[in-house]
Design goal:
The complex is a heterodimer. By secondary structure, chain A is mainly β. Chain A is built from no helices and twelve strands. Helix content of chain B is 0%, strand content 48%.
């Protein structure tokens, strides 16, 4: 079974601070990895995704994430946060391949980011 | 709009009533998923379809829950005899099964259910 752990439940930063949100997963096979953002009152939006290849992936709004296979980690980073980044962030994993579980995503419990102006 | 749509967006019901939600996936997507999200938690998998076949149901899906995708297009999720614990956001997602294994799900806006 898959599981995803997000270590930080609530992060508070000032504008222009750097951000790193931790995500570790547990799964015995090859996975696809995702970060989603949910702004207050809005639905899930994809920030970035990793399927294969270069482990450093860039997403929208200046976010990036690095897949470290040996550590089963996919941490999200942003060099300088803005007030508008205040939101909840979810890491998700799904098995890669054509088996029946492929595409079924497991999410972490989320990290609430509050950016102070 | 060619994204995933869900209807209704909000539903308030009394305990014991039945409710039904609808999801319209992206038209060419053959996989459709239902998730439930409660406050402070990430989405939890409920069930999914490949075309019209329901391939897996989570243990979270009690006998009061049933989902269908009769023609492999839209899907419905019905909850019978609702309980207060059913209050949550119900999310639908769709994806296209890709030979390379790049399975990306596209999420709808969700249906927020409140059971009084």
């Amino acid at each position: 079974a898959q599981s995803v752990s997000q270590h930080n439940h609530h992060v508070i930063l000032s504008e222009a601070a750097s951000l790193e949100l931790g995500c570790n997963y547990s799964y015995g096979g090859t996975v696809n990895l995702f970060w989603y953002v949910q702004y207050p009152g809005q639905h899930l939006q994809l920030l970035l995704k990793y399927f294969s290849g270069d482990p450093l992936v860039k997403g929208i709004k200046g976010f990036e994430a690095e897949f470290i296979k040996s550590k089963f980690s996919f941490n999200l980073r942003k060099p300088s946060v803005q007030w508008s980044d205040t939101a909840e962030y979810f890491c998700a994993v799904n098995p890669r391949g054509l088996n029946t579980n492929a595409g079924k995503s497991t999410f972490g419990d989320g990290t609430t980011l509050t950016v102070k102006p | 709009d060619t994204g995933v749509s869900q209807d209704p967006r909000h539903k308030i019901t009394k305990r014991g009533q039945n409710v039904t939600f609808r999801c319209d996936p992206i038209s060419e997507h053959n996989r459709l998923y239902w998730y439930r999200q409660t406050l402070g938690q990430g989405p939890e998998f409920l069930t999914y379809f490949q075309n019209e076949a329901q391939l897996e149901k989570s243990r979270l899906l009690s006998d009061r829950f049933s989902a269908e995708r009769p023609k492999g297009s839209f899907s419905t999720l019905e909850i019978q005899r609702t309980e207060q614990g059913d209050s949550a956001m119900y999310l639908c997602a769709s994806s296209l099964e890709v030979l390379a294994g790049n399975n990306e799900q596209f999420f709808g806006p969700g249906t927020r259910l409140t059971v009084l």
